[in-house]
Amino acid sequence: MSDTYAIADSIHVLQVDEAPLLDKTAEFPDRRGPDSLTLTTTDRADSALEHLEDDAIDGIVVADDLPDRSGRAFADTVRERDSTVPVLLLTESESVASDALSNGVTDVFRRDAAVDRSHLLANRIRLLVEHHQSTAIASQTRRRLTELAEQSNELLWVFSGDWSEIQFVNPAYETIYGRSVDSLQANPAEFMTAIHHTDQDRVIQAMQHVSAGDPADLEFRITKPDGEQRWVRAEAQPIVEDGTVTRIVGASRDITERKRRESERATELDSPDTPVDAMPDLFYELDENGDLIRWNDALAADTGHEDADLASMTLAALFATSDRESVRQSIESAFETGETSFEADLLTADGTTVPYEFTGGRITAADGSTLGVAGIGREISTRDSHQQALEQQNERLDEFASVVSHDLRNPLDVARGQLELAQMEHDSEHLDAVKRAHDRIGQLIEDLLTLARNGEAALDSEPVPLQTVVEQCWHTVETGDATLELQTSAVVRADPSRLRQLFENLIRNSVEHGQTPHTERQEGTGEQRTTPSVSQSQGAAVGLTVTVGELNDGFYIADDGVGIPADEREDVFDGGHSLASGPGFGLRIVDQIVDTHGWSITVGESDAGGARFEITGVEFETA
């Protein structure tokens, strides 16, 4: 079979049946996707196998009672030749249908001689073929992306929205961090142990911003297991679904060499004798007569002339003959007007020419007299090629986004539409599996589009009913047997998605930590982490009541759980502090969302002895 898949305008179906239900081309003028089924019909298995060998067959409809063998035996033979082509078996026997699905048959259709079901049969085989093709496209895309990721020198990764689970990481992690992929998958917080202690707060703050819906781009130092210190730049982008950050995708790369060069250049600039030599561009200085009197190392290196040769050369000798007059006029313009800008071909010692762009300005003494002209030159031979490369890159990006949006999303929409039709006509657990596969493909498409189109979320305040957003969050978070009490009907001005994340984190905090805690100190960090017992931490809170109420200038969320010890209340909003197993960033994200809105948050004890979080400074929307 071909390695490239697409959903065509017509599906070619091989029908093997003495009394075929499909006796003409079936058209679908009002449906999305292919317009028709093209049929090849035969009544014998041997003849059908010849067609399968010679023709491009997309799907097979076969009766169970063929003259030369059973439909099930025919399906077994087909599977020996092609393990993927969909095979739909026509039968009137319940036992045959059950047995067939456990062998080589993809699906079963009940034959009923008394009823014309040809249209249903056409839709069923069409659905099977389109699902097969869509799955093949997604599998092919995933395989190619995985191959690209494994060959990339950049570290590519996908975390869950709260950083507690690593969902994907490529082998570059082992090269950059010096640790195994398996160890990161076993402990998603492992990379934090490599980050230099003076950079950890910045990294944690950036992670919290991303979990709150904002992208991040930062540089920090890491220490590899052998003690080697490296610089890393990381870019992270949140994936937001229904107002909640569900995944975080990003890329990291080693920038140690760039940092080394920057450090060396800074050291050179600190020396009063060599500032111009640290410049990557050409530097020149002319006296009041227009003669070259000072230059940097770049001029000597780019022209191939020794400093002694440059000292004895006229300015014109540094340029191609055709450009010397225009250069002279440009220098005169600098003396007259105070500045100049021109392009000319620099002539090297071996006789070659290189296009440069020069700028310069007049140098004056304290008394206003002219001392000369100084400026810089920059090679422009690479400018056009860089612009062309940038345009090509943008074209590839547009093409990539087009492939994801059209060539993948359109077939997926087709498959989803046909799945809805099939679920109305046929109740099957296989269709539920198809829906789950479609959802996974959809998630992959959204992640790819996010990587291709980087954006920044901004605070967008609007009137938000507290009751509505809290009820939505309650159905989103795993709350077990906990109970919600709403004692407010207030409408506040807030960013809806971030307010929803605030309540999700606070509700999750109450449900997960509303049981008897056990405090332990994390090794090597000096931080305390409070965790429930194993039996408690494996499920949601039992018998817990969470209350959301209204304050004069805000709102609160309280529970009747075990509460937060008074000596820990000042620390709960710090990154890394957790009352249960996990990264400990949930309340820090809440604090960040509150701060972004210009509100304030405090934590205390509820009337029932549990935890109570109060958010104040909130603007209410009045009727």
Automatic annotation (TrEMBL):
Occurrences of domain PAS (ranges): 141-214, 276-338
Give the domain of life: Archaea
A Pfam family found in this protein is: PAS_3
Entry keyword annotation includes Kinase: yes
Q: Which UniProt keywords apply?
A: Kinase, Transferase, Two-component regulatory system
For region Disordered, the annotated ranges are 252-278, 508-538
* Residues in coiled coil: none
InterPro entries named in the record: CheY-like_superfamily, HATPase_C_sf, HATPase_dom, His_kinase_dom, HisK_dim/P_dom, HisK_dim/P_sf, PAC, PAS
- Catalytic activity field: ATP + protein L-histidine = ADP + protein N-phospho-L-histidine
Looking at the record, the residues that make up the Histidine kinase domain are: 403-616
Q: Where is the composition biased (Basic and acidic residues)?
A: 254-268
Q: List, alphabetically, the SMART domains matched.
A: HATPase_c, HisKA, PAC, PAS
- Under Enzyme Commission nomenclature, its number is 2.7.13.3
Tell me which residues make up the PAC domain. Answer: 216-267, 340-392
Provide ranges: composition bias, Polar residues.
527-538
Q: Which NCBIfam families match?
A: sensory_box
Which PANTHER family does UniProt cross-reference here?
Answer: HISTIDINE KINASE 1, TWO-COMPONENT HISTIDINE KINASE
The name under which this protein is listed is histidine kinase
